[in-house]
Amino acid sequence: MLCPACDKRRYVELVIVWLNGSHGVGKTTTSRLVQDVIPDSRVLDAEKVGATLMGITPGLPPTDNFQHWDPWRPLVVDTVRRVLDYTGGTLVMPMTVLVERYWDEISGGLAEHGIPVRHFVLHADRDTLRQRIRDDAIMGISRFRLQYVEPYLEAAKTWLHASAEVIDTAGLDPAEVAQQVVLRLRGCV
């Protein structure tokens, strides 16, 4: 339940609500719930930009992650800019970015266009992440998601948590995580 003061507050200068964190932590589910309560907002999954690049034939140089392709990061920035120019409002973006240089490139590119970003990291400890990935009823167990648990934890220790507002999701259901994001957006936490 929101506090009465928060109920009356308007969202101020929201443009990008970036939900970062390990694969399997609940970013996509949370993004939909956050989008439901922010007026004039849309969910934009930057993974779709990567999917476009993966569809190029013949393919781009082999990689284990489309984020390593140099065009991906500026295309994310340009996509965000053009969507906002077209629609206005707020974009809620669920996307794991674990390489600091990549985050700097994206956030710096958005800043160059005057696009404010509220960067949240949805956090869970190693055991919680692994259990959520193993128990995912929609995706099932995913080797891809499991292989990013340790890189996430390393990024969290070295730069990621320092660059964002961290929400510990252990013991919270998706609605409670979304509520924590919304409360922080409203300045109530």
Name some characteristics of this structure.
189 residues; alpha/beta; Rossmann fold; five-stranded parallel beta sheet; 9 helices; 13% strand; globular
Architecture overview:
The chain has 189 residues and is of the alpha/beta class. The chain has one domain (4-185): 3-Layer(aba) Sandwich (Rossmann fold), CATH 3.40.50. The chain has 9 helices and 5 strands; from the N terminus they run αβαβααβαβαααβα. The chain has helices at 4-8, 27-37, 47-54, 72-87, 100-112, 126-134, 143-147, 149-160, 174-185, and strands at 16-20, 41-43, 90-94, 117-123, 165-168. A 5-stranded parallel beta sheet has the order 2-3-1-4-5, with helices on both faces. Helix 2 (27-37) packs across helix 9 (174-185) and helix 4 runs parallel beside helix 5. The longest helix has 16 residues, at 72-87. It starts with a helix and ends with a helix.
Q: Rg, please? A: 16 Å
Overall number of structural domains = 1
Q: Which spans of ≥5 residues are poorly predicted at pLDDT below 50?
A: 8-12
CATH H-level superfamily: P-loop containing nucleotide triphosphate hydrolases
CATH topology: Rossmann fold
- Tell me the strand percentage band: 5-15%
Tell me the major beta sheet.
5 strands, parallel
CATH architectural category = 3-Layer(aba) Sandwich
Across the major sheet, the strand order is 2-3-1-4-5
SSE order, one letter for each helix or strand? HEHEHHEHEHHHEH
CATH class assignment: Alpha Beta
How helical, in percent, are the residues? 40-55%
Q: Distance between termini?
A: 13 Å
Count of helical regions: 9
